[in-house]
Amino acid sequence: MTIPWWGYVILAGLAWGTYVPIIAFGGLEFGGKSNARLAAILCVGLAYFVLAVIFPMILFTTGAEESPSIKTSAVVFSALAGVAGAVGAICVVFATSTAVKAATDAGLPATSYKIYIAPLIFGLAPVINTLLSTVWHPSPKTGWNNFHFELPNVYLLIGIVLVGLGAALVLYSKEIGEAPKPVAVTPEPTVPATQP
Do the Cβ atoms of 126 and 57 come closer than 8 Å? Predict the structure, then answer.
């Protein structure tokens, strides 16, 4: 079965879209304290090890995939990508626990801020990716230090603006949600005047 490129996009979206709630629940199941966050991160690392180390090694050693040539730059930049992914995973875990504490300290339900974490992260990440991709153009011919500005298509710029507006709406809805709710005043019942 051959999966088209957009199929992988959908699978990645499903995986990353479910990541924040799943890791938050995992940390809660470990007890919800700082040691629980570390245990959740450890499980993420074990999953990465199985999927990103064991699985490719099996494919290379069985001949299902040809082993690539090893270059220093390939190892360095691939490892940096792994570090970026791991830092992101750790930040998601700590953002969740910090959001729960901030909401509790503010006298709000513990889950009040958690709902904003994923939209902000996954709104910010593609904007950063796009901005970096407009100035950094590494290739095997030119190396990693090929920097110049390439103006993206106008629709991409409109998309970035819309993502920014979406993040602003998420934050604004947070502020609206935290605003004190007006207290409904019930009028005193009127007693009809008695006739003499």
Answer: no
